[in-house]
User: Fold these one by one.
Assistant:
Number 1:
Amino acid sequence: MNRARRSYLGLGIYLAALLLLPITLTGQTSVPQPPPILLGTAWYPEQWAESRWEADLALMQQAGIHMVRVGEFAWSRMEPSEGRYDLDWLDRAVAAAAKHEIYTVLGTPTAAPPAWLTQRYPDTLRVDEEGHRAEHGNRQQFNFANSKYRDLARKIAEQMAKHFGHNPFVIGWQIDNEYADVSFDAETKVQFQQWLKMRYGTLDHLNAAWTTSYWSQTYSDWNQIPIETRYGNPGLLLSWKRFVSDTWRSYQKNQLDVIRPNCDSRQFITTNTMGWFDGFDHYTVEQDLDLAAWDDYVGQGHLDPAKNGAADDLTRGFKRKNFWIMETQPGFVNWAGVNTSLDKGEVRAMAWHNVGHGADTVSYWQWRSALNGQEEYHGTLVGADGTPVPLYPEIQQLGADFAKAGSVLAGTSPKSEVAVLHSYDSRWALQWQKHNREYDPVAELVSYYRPLRAISQSIDVVQASDPLTAYKLVVAPGLNVLSDTAAKNLAEYVRQGGHLVLGQRSAMKNDDNGLQLEGQPGPLVELLGGRVEQYYALVDPVPVTGRFGASQGKLWAELLNASSQDVEVLATYGKSNGWLDGKPAAITRQVGKGRITYFGAWLDDAGMAAAAKWMAQTSGVKTALGPVPEGVEVYPRYGSNGAVYILVNFSKTQQTVPLPSRMQDVLEGGARQSVTLPRYGVAVLSANR
Ligand code: GLA
């Protein structure tokens, strides 16, 4: 950058800073602070003439947008040829946004390598499982394990960090974009074999852990070990996924290590993940980041608050603190079967649902569609002509909402009495060996989550190895793979007085995806005082009766056996395949002040609702706000000033919610003893102000 330009830019930044900086009484200025609850959008200044930026930013400001995410696909603009960096335009974009009170999150552009790069270094292109090398023309064509690619990625990230690491209007970094596609090239395979050597030490250990005597799979050389993703030995399959997770982690760390030392500590570093996507273990990758963020798209149809809320809670569980919605749909997407739009009002309702689950930012993808490119049909906030789309006023209302509620929600976060355990190892293991093609581990998790959330109005989704003692109830819907360390943590939780509920297929596998010698639930058999005698895949549901009324078990049934006298049978199977008839379907056992329960049946909705009620009652779980009409979602967030309750009406009709005490209506003003919400209506209520 030439000197004159730099000083011109410096002046621009200075003037913009004057507009935003809070000036203290002593006349000192401090770094500007973005609003606590941020409305944002993905903005691609590189796709437009600079003369247009002002109009776009003014429209964003009018909508109450205070954040733009910029740059994540702009590599060819930032580095037009190898080693020739041009970030001046990005300086100007950040400064122009700041003039409109808009802060920037910078994306490193490594999900979209430029054509010169792939032409010069074809080995940086990823190879798919069938051996085809990717080409230029789309995005994400890079090989995540390739050392040359990592060199180039590191250099551009470093340039950006050195340039923007102290810019007061850059509040954070997004590394790459939606890690997803992996490579099956020869270099990656060698790295996998080296990874196996690190993990197992000797081939004897590996052969024993994977029982490779089966089908003559025994390895006598590390380089004999293949990559398998679907039909291989279960130990091999799980190892590949763990290698992929570690490789994404090191891919990310490669950039983190040059961003962190070059930027202010106030700038966070994140990446944007994809909800239930299970291409890698997110707990592995997230441990190095400051903040979790995900891209929340409904696709076809409407928001399912339980399934989507569980994905919010999953993301909150990565760092066990508030998170961001880095992308969400402005009405509709372009990639679903039928790209239906969310209803009028539903976009705002969804944003508040996310904030209720602990999102501190909701950012729309995208502001305006590029005039050409693969996503021309995707929803936006302004049209191709640059004028607001019909959704824009709803976003504007949201901007006004966030401005009103920001100070009340600042520093608050969800807190739950119930934890639902989630494990990528288990999800993968179940998917590789479903035994019933309809079996979906996420659906199983949500079937527990849904009624439990309706009762408790707040749930954490965490790992079995996380600290659990603060929870009254811990539910593990399908904890198929259980390591000894996690088993110890769970047993300790029960001994300390907690209630652990295991769902079907729990603890069938050890940490290498092999069968547990003790049967199910593996290391917890003794504590449970019972175990799974046999499992049966079902086409037709089986009747289940007992403590949860008369219901039906679907897809899978486990015949339970209680070996200890003090085990209580909660439910039994009715007449079905003969084997199951009259046998225990759910058992529970008190252990000191704690309790362990096992569900061998996947109950239908009515059965699940009754079971959730029993779980909550037995464990002393309370409802956060109090009973509300069906379809009204309650989201408590707690801070030093007490509780704030966000209420969203997802039912089809208007609903009135009685409140347990008089509360401040943060959006509408005034104090209320009850609140009436139209369909998709939102209320933010403060209990202590
Ligand atoms: C993903 C990507 C975005 C965009 C949207 C479209 O989330 O991160 O770049 O392609 O999908 O829905």
Number 2:
Amino acid sequence: MGRLIALTALTSMVAMPALAQGVVQNTALKEGGATATSPDGRLRVTVTVDGDGRPHYAVARNGKVLIEPSRLGFLLTDAPKLERRFAIESQSTSSADTTWEQPWGEWKSIRDRHTEFRVRLKETTALARVMDVVFRIFDEGVGFRYELPDQPNLKHANIADELTEFGLAGNGTAWWIPAGEWNRYEYLYNRTPISEVGQAHTPITVKLEDGTHVAFHEAALVDYSGMWLRRVTGTRFKAQLSPGAGPAKVVKQGPFTTPWRTMVIADDAAGLYTGSRMTLNLNEPNKLGDVSWVKPGKFVGVWWNMIKGKWSWARGPQHGATTDNVKRYIDFAGANGIPGVLVEGWNVGWDGDWFGNGTDMNFSGPTEDFDAKGLAAYARSKGTALVGHHETGGSASHYDKQLDTAFAWSAAHGQKVVKTGYVADAGQIGRVDPDGSEHREWHDGQWMSNHHLRVVLAAAKYKISVDPHEPIKDTGLRRTYPNWLAREGARGQEYMAWAGKNPPEHEANLVFTRMLSGPMDFTPGILSLKGEKDSDIPSTIAKQLAQYVVIYSPVQMAADEPEVYAKLMDAFQFIKDVPVDWADTRILNGEVGDYVTIARKDRNSADWYLGSVGDEQARNLEVTLDFLDPGKTYTAQIYRDAPDTRFDSDTRHKYVIETKKVKRGDRLMLALAPGGGQAIRFAAK
Ligand code: NOJ
Ligand code: CA
């Protein structure tokens, strides 16, 4: 579809006739403000300036206020704030309707249909600084950013904080994790009244009393600090930028733009998931050119045994990354068509106190019991490849110094994907400047947003993709840099190994919060349902399988030991079959933190897959198979909980596998056990 743009100036005040595509908005001033609507007319954004010259924006949906007038602007450390004594100088709108293709993802093609609404604000004081606020109003929500043009009185900006507010018009329920705390994004979700949220990471999801769902987040976080939301009063939130070690939280030279502040707005939880494609639309197109070398795929690995304390990353009698151990994983991957084998603890640097300090890490120095060359060749002979691992312990500058040699070494050893890691408490990232001065940074500050891009670009040079753990949050940059495959950035399955395990509602929370930001390396498939010290994992086998569909990632681990899968080959068959790259995705049902059912179509065949997960309650969910292709018969290969399965008893290990012939329009009843799930492959004939 072509892009049609039409502009209308504020001063013209003329309602333009609708065009076939790209309807021009009526940009008439409303009570002294500027206003524009979404393509379907349901969402309206209005910008006003109050008696003190303070600019505000507001959002209405179907004529009802959703975001009350909310402040805009910045606090600067070395200049008067950009917040008062503004007037609207001009406004314009344009509309766009394009469709683009994802090289990999949950949907093959994505439509980007929006109204762009640009408001120029100018100070009425002698400084006369100019600040543009640019909105993209989609049918599914609103994104806006600041654009600060080149101007004599704003040659640089030392941003102390952003003053952007989000004043929700009513109360309701919020699902959120705390921001600014030591464990980064790795918290269980709070479910509280909106009016009891503290300081939260984004995405934060709310359900208002009238049922409207809103998820607040940001898009295209580049060279800027991550935005937290801090509740100021009632149901009003304010942007709180992640701190930095420099002279201000964000330092900008010359003209600049901020990341997009986003609100996905929907009637239900399902609408939030599909509407979150907005984040990708607000990112720039692929900047890497031909990315046919970026290959989504599954992997196994020398990993879970360290997480649960059976093996060690460090050298010694328990060392996991030995040539013999790795060979067994390669054999298993080769025999099951799995393209990747992750090995952690393969390199020199783990023997000391690496947590929060990775300055001993050598990213091209294998330990003496790991035959890097031999294993690379052995993997190749079995049709698989090693997945690299760079744990920085948070010493990011130490990693920066090795980036080029590290990725050159990975490429020379046949690696296509490297998992990175930043294990350090929040605010404890090690930054060393060229002058030798040492600083502590935040995982989601401006400096780290730049560090992550340096890593992604260094990897791209060697045709390697990356999967950072303890990352900065996802803001859709995979569109611009498609080798940025996935990341952690939430409590993953590793917490199931330890005390304080994830509760059964965790996945249904993630899908409608963290997953709205992008793919997560969750590490599904722990079919043993056993963690450290043989502790029980509060889940079921069918739910572990469903995770592959429900929690999207283009790199998906079969995280358990090969020996476990060998004993459960009938259940493992689903892990073997399930793709990681999709042509289409449909959310069939869901309530935040309660349950969700997702159907996805394989990108490389006519097969569909379904995953359904619940919380601690048993549920019967009826679904209509209206997504299946018409005129085809499918064999539904169903992996479900047994009638007496429960997450909190030994029956967690019980599952039923059955097949059924089905076609489009048929109905299926999904019976989820307490803490359980269901996974289905619809194999096309
Ligand atoms: C934390 C990561 O999430 C985990 O997957 C990894 O094994 C450890 N760091 C060590 O790098
Ligand atoms: Ca982690």
Number 3:
Amino acid sequence: MNAAKDISVSRDAVADPEVRAANARADGLPPADPAEKTSLARLPAHARAAGRSTPHESARAQVAGAATYVDDIPEVRGTLHAAPILSTVAHGKLLGVDTAAALAMPGVRDVILARDIPGDPLLGNFSHDEPVFARETVQHIGQVIGVVLAGTVMQARRAARKVVCKIEPLPALLKVQDALKAESYVLPPVFVKRGDAAAALKKAAHTLHGTLEVGGQEHFYLEGQVAYVVPQEQQQWLVYSSTQHPGEIQHWVSHALGIANHAVRVECRRMGGGFGGKETQSGQMAVWAAIAAHKLHCPVKLRLDRDDDFLVTGKRHPFAYEYDVGFDATGRLTGLKLTMAVNCGFSADLSGPVADRAVFHADNAYFLEDVEIASYRCKTNTQSNTAFRGFGGPQGMIVIEAIMGDIARTLGLDALDVRKRNLYGIGERDTTHYQMKVEDNILEPLLAKLEQSSQYRQRRKTIAAWNKTSPVIQRGIAITPVKFGISFTATLFNQAGALVHVYTDGSVQVNHGGTEMGQGLNTKVAQIVADELGVPLAQVLATASDTSKIPNASATAASAGTDLNARAAQYAARNVRDNLAQFVAGLDRCGAGAVQFEGGEVITPAGARPFTEVVKLAYANRIQLWSDGFYRTPKIHYDKATLTGRPFYYFAYGAACTEVAIDTLTGESRVLKVDILHDVGTSINPAIDIGQIEGGFIQGMGWLTTEQLVWNDKGLLSTHAPSTYKIPATGDVPEHFKVDFWPEPNREDNVFGSKAVGEPPLMLAISVYEALRDAVAFARPGRAVVLEAPATPEHVLQSLSLSWRGLLAPSPSGRGNHAENDAGDSGFAPSPSGRRQG
Ligand code: MTE
Ligand code: HPA
Ligand code: MOS
């Protein structure tokens, strides 16, 4: 990637002997240098693992094709393959299923339907509102009615298409606006309010009314959804699943089979990406395969084909918004009424917490004084939307950022100044609309630094001058901040467990409740454990997530994987270290507190011994060489009913400056330059964190530019393959792509002083959307800019022409451009308050 040349953190880690040894181990090859084979040998004391850019523990194995995914696990003899039977109707009565033709196909063994479920026909998830297999009704195109079992994957897939489902169509709700009108909800609406928004709007110097629509996003993990269920002796089950939440798979499978949790063991070595799409929705594969395995008494694998993955599984929630905002002449917001209509799809899944997080992030970085937010969790006849990197945060933030841009254009101010004007204060204006005090706010200095380093002011002037001379191409630039709350909003999930085993040769295994999806969790956990024991990183091996090792683990999600699991692992390692320290203190007649673990040695005032030697001695003296560790996040609490309290332990901050160009004839756009300043606290692994920031940003850019999901008027998702659904390619990475870290540790006590990094950078890409709107504004000056997200060429063209049409012929209602966008069919109840422009 040409982007790498601009990146400011060095990646020279492969020069480390211990890292090379780890690489060799991952390849399954002997280390190149025989001296490194004794990676347990003494290392210089400065060789600490955390804080260094050691490569991802699986990187070499992954590029060598030697890393194991579920579909790579050698199949047990007699394994059958399952393929899903999909509903072809968005909403209807399921009158019958004719399996005769499918059963006659080569290799087919059976067809599994709802009647074959031994336990509860509803999934064992929190909301308990989703059938395992569709029964009396079907609720979206792609809903799974059953699975066909055959000797090979292709035989199963071909036969699944031969199953004839008799469905009597019923009226379907496909658009979120229709669901809102029909009051069709998966969960009741939630209202959060502070002060008196209506009164504030009434007395505001300026008001704006607007609507906005933001599309969903397909996860497009490179490894699709897959599960492999292998029956064990005495009604016990082993499930290999590509999942962010092995514990939930365990619950769902035992629930569906009607057996106890202890009889189901779930293992996940790694995922080829999850991005939230495997937080819950990997469970269906496992349940379907388990029901089939239960009926046929044989191992069953279910790997969705990519098109089916698109049609079956949920996506990022599309949102529609309506807002009234009041502000003063300086651009400071004085009142806000915001309605969010959340398209949840046909069942609740994680929609409640996703919609909550959107409410929590509707402020992004800004103090909302008098505010009223309504959040409607709409039920439509589409896939059940689910977690996706940011988990509603992006959808909460984008609308307030759009409002900031609108205010700036209305007042003729620079959008950065409007954003700065509205930032949370220090010691004043610092309490969120959900009553949490923002104590760790660094955005003012962070934005100032980025403004300087990106030369924003100068560039915006240059761009404005350049645009004047450019007939077709127009550029735009924007800086947007991110303030993202870290912790699961469901407080109970903020706990984690780990096991650290030290073997008698001094090698260490760590296991924790988190899962590896590419984000580098195992690497960071191993780094922390290595330092706690003072051993080289190559001596520590992180092993597959396994419900029989760590029970009741939370999903690896909410970016909290390292915060939770690395701390739990650190505590586990500390217990072992304490055992060893006490033992060595006895030998050397010193206090246990005087014993140090460093550079592969155990050091007391009397002298140093190799860690390996201490371990052998300790074993011979019957000292426990392994331990568990448990961590729960302190300080957090909140009231689920009113959404008030302290849902987050701390905030992760960042900002991005993005420059774009649009072609005003075709609507095409490019992201030209990106400068990011992001807060990861003290980085445990700078290379991995930069990867997360780059990857998150590019994924967010895809969401807001090219990744468009199109359902046709029957409710079929017509963009169900990479031919029509466009994620960013390497060529879309901006040529100038610079990532810097904010140089300050986490102000809260978090592992190594680090901050969570998995999701926050995705929202830096809102700067792309705002830069595109800036470019449209340059092309069509003096008008409001309405740009539907994703900003595909069509939407950019539409935005140009909407603004253009507005200039020629103001809409008769006199409501201006924003109103024009929702004329007639916004689905929002018309607000009774009078609307004023500017
Ligand atoms: N990075 C990679 N490479 N692959 C992924 O699937 N998922 C993201 C983020 N980064 C993801 C990723 C999401 S949605 C989350 S919540 C976090 O990683 C989860 O991991 P963490 O909590 O360990 O950061
Ligand atoms: N993030 C991700 N997953 C979750 C959350 C959250 O805040 N709450 C419940 N599941
Ligand atoms: Mo991430 S959306 O919390 O899995």
Number 4:
Amino acid sequence: MRIAVVGSGYVGLVAGACFADMGHDVVVVDNDQNKLAALKNGQVPIHENFLPELLSRHRGQRLQFSDDLQGAVRQSAAIFVAVGTPPTESGEADLSYVESVARELSGAVDGYKVVVEKSTVPVYTSEWVRKIILRNGTDPEKFDVASNPEFLREGSAVTDFLFPDRIVIGCDSHRAAEVLREIYLPLTSGQYYERVDAIPQPDRASIPAPIIVTSTKSAELIKHASNAFLAMKISFINAVASVCESVGADVSQVAHGIGTDSRIGPRFLSPGIGYGGSCFPKDVMAFRIVARECGYEFRLLDEIMHINEDQRQRFLRKVRNALWTLRGKRLAVLGLAFKGGTDDIRESPALLIVQALLQEGSKITAYDPAAMERVRETLGSSITYANSAYEAAHGADALLLLTEWEEFANLDLKRLRQELKYAIVIDGRNLYDPEVMSAHGITYYSVGRPACLPDGVPAAALKNGKKA
Ligand code: UDX
Ligand code: UDX
């Protein structure tokens, strides 16, 4: 199949590279010349597992990069639209990029094409895209608009794409469904997984990939509802963690206890400093607004956002309670990306916490395995950048764990303790067992679990860590 993917961001680039690996001829279109030049030159603009391998495997062969949208449309049977849909000031999704792509591609529809929404868009977007294409003079018989939402997590986007829990195809015509079924056939037939050079299968993969065909509107809603539900799971466990802190219970035991109920499931029940990233914050907000426009006040979504915001404030209070005053304190920060495994700092709760601490007069030395360059562009020299976790910890009054990178869960605690001026760790991601920390002489605060003093005395007596 010949496929065009419009937008070479986190979603478009991964989709393009994966379609090429599935055997299709792909042209990825972008209007950012610098990005295109870098991609053509062999650079990989984002930190994403397996993406460098796929790009070097297919670049210049089954995978081309271009700024010519109309040329790409003419040579393709399906056009996946993966341009950004950032939030406007009022929180709605800004669909102007999607609209301009729809307008521009109209002039190039010279045979039957399926225009596929890949970006997260509100319900009814497909109808608008259709109207725009028709308004620009395209024959209604020559195209269909479909929705094929992505469920890619940054960091594992390539394996999420090639080993999906499900592929959702939303279309209102049999013809469009057939085109999309054919595109995904290597995954739904299982043929891709038999190849010796296939990307390795992750745990929990259900192969061959199941496919769900729905109406276009249902598919659009599946995307918003999925992200809102996952955000709800995170806010729910964060709220439970707050109750645990009040009564001295342990949220990891509670999460295990509820997550083993197969109706609930164990995933996305890790408490922390709140969800971030380019999707959950904007999608929960956008879904709230879309629901209102459609006549339903989805107040549950307000509470999900409220708990998420509150979770950051609670963490900041924990830092103040552990250290008393913050002005002039030297804090080591591990993790700046919005989660582990990515260099993405969009809506990163770690970064928001760093900014709040700077405002309170702390001095920050930070380390992140992948996100430092991007943070430098935002924070400049207002923080110090370290080359390792230990260098960040050196001479610090306390260490803050803000992103769930695997390497931060495996630190040499003896060395860490030696580097720190005071052996205090405030963990926003529950990466350590409190008893292990106290056995290493570290005063340890985490989320939804009793704080621990070096001698192993749980700091229940220090209700909320307030005692000096
Ligand atoms: C995607 C989805 O589009 C968004 O809806 C989803 O919720 C999150 O992921 P992402 O891939 O992260 O967004 O976006 P971004 O990294 O901003 O990439 C978009 C690309 O589209 C950029 O490279 C931009 O240059 C390109 N673009 C944008 C175009 O080629 N044409 C345009 O008109 C606008
Ligand atoms: C998410 C969805 O998972 C994906 O299906 C969708 O297509 C895009 O949005 P992503 O934003 O890459 O993916 O990250 P995800 O792994 O979902 O994490 C989002 C945020 O929630 C991160 O800040 C993460 O740290 C946080 N999180 C996640 C928790 O705090 N606890 C959890 O249990 C899981």
